[in-house]
Each structure stands twice: as structure tokens, then as C-alpha cells.
Automatic annotation (TrEMBL):
It catalyses: a 2'-deoxyribonucleoside 5'-diphosphate + ATP = a 2'-deoxyribonucleoside 5'-triphosphate + ADP; a ribonucleoside 5'-diphosphate + ATP = a ribonucleoside 5'-triphosphate + ADP. The gene is ndk. Major role in the synthesis of nucleoside triphosphates other than ATP. The ATP gamma phosphate is transferred to the NDP beta phosphate via a ping-pong mechanism, using a phosphorylated active-site intermediate. Homotetramer. The active site is at H117. One of its GO terms (cellular component) is cytoplasm. It is found in: Cytoplasm. ATP binds at K11, F59, R87, T93, R104, N114. Residues 3-135 form the Nucleoside diphosphate kinase-like domain. This is Nucleoside diphosphate kinase.
């Protein structure tokens, strides 16, 4: 498997909990390098654009409202098989179903406030990295 990049967001709940460093340590211990990073307060339009794929879903309004509720930490991670390595670190979308030792099991509150985002494919990773960091 080749070196890849993936887009990660530490969501408002985890930023508020002061666990950015703990989550970064998990990326680093898994061999993922932080190659771009910025803290941001997303606007409504930025959050809607980022999650546009979900705009017809019943949870879309709540998801956007949550993502603009406080600052987020956005990073591009680079490493072997980075997309899947990050998804494995994150755990299941619903923290109640997330495996022990995953970021969501340890830091997330609920399916809405679930601590982190990670790209779900290499193709989406490229789109999402360009969305926040440009080419
Ligand atoms: P993410 O995109 O944030 O990394 O999360 P994911 O791939 O694990 O989950 P996805 O299906 O892409 O959903 C995006 C976010 O929407 C919220 N969600 N709520 N109430 C629900 O049934 C529901 N389903 C999804 C979650 O906060 C999820 O992270
Ligand atoms: Mg997703």
C-alpha cells in the first residue's frame, strides 16, 4: 500500500474537552504524520459545503449546527494506507459501537458529538484536503 493523505477534523466536542494533543499522539503513534493543520471556526456555509454529500439526510441540520458550535482542528495526515489507518483509529460513527481503545470510544459523547471526522476514501480525501488547504 502506497503513502496516502487523509483529511482529519477534531470536532468541537473534542476541542472543548482539551484532547487535541491526546488525539495527535494517537496519529503519531500509528505512523501518521501531520502535514497540514489549522484551527478554525467553520461558518455555516463551510460546514454545509463540507458535508454536502449528506444534505438530504435527516441528521444534516443537526450535523451542521454541531460543526459550527465551536472551533475545530483540521489536519491532513500522511502515511502508509492513511485513510484506513485513520478510520481504524477513529472507531465506529456511533461511540456506543466503537471498539475499545478507539478515539470515539475514549473521547466521544454521542453519534452527533463524535470527536473526529476522517475521510472515507482516497478520492474523498483529495477533495476534502483541497476544500480546506487548497491544492
Ligand atoms: P465523519 O464523516 O464525520 O467522519 O463520520 P462517519 O464517516 O463515521 O459517518 P457519516 O456516515 O459520514 O456521517 C457523518 C456524521 O453525521 C452524523 N450522523 N448522524 N443520527 C444519525 O443517524 C447519524 N448518522 C451520521 C455523525 O456525527 C457522523 O459523524
Ligand atoms: Mg463520513
Amino acid at each position: 500500500m502506497a503513502v496516502q493523505r487523509t483529511l482529519s477534523i477534531i470536532k468541537p466536542d473534542a476541542v472543548a474537552k482539551n484532547v487535541i494533543g491526546k488525539i495527535y499522539t494517537r496519529f503519531e503513534n500509528a505512523g501518521l504524520k501531520i502535514v497540514e493543520a489549522k484551527m478554525a471556526q467553520l461558518t455555516q456555509a463551510e460546514a454545509e459545503g463540507f458535508y454536502a454529500v449528506h444534505k438530504e439526510r435527516p441528521f444534516f441540520a443537526d450535523l451542521v449546527k454541531f460543526m459550527v458550535s465551536g472551533p475545530v482542528m483540521i489536519q491532513a495526515l500522511e502515511g502508509e494506507n492513511a485513510v484506513q489507518v485513520n478510520r481504524d483509529l477513529m472507531g465506529a460513527t456511533n461511540p456506543k459501537e466503537a471498539a475499545a481503545g478507539t478515539i470515539r470510544a475514549d473521547f466521544a459523547e454521542s453519534i452527533d458529538a463524535n470527536a473526529v471526522h476522517g475521510s472515507d476514501s482516497a478520492e474523498n480525501a483529495a477533495i476534502e484536503i483541497a476544500y480546506f488547504f487548497g491544492k
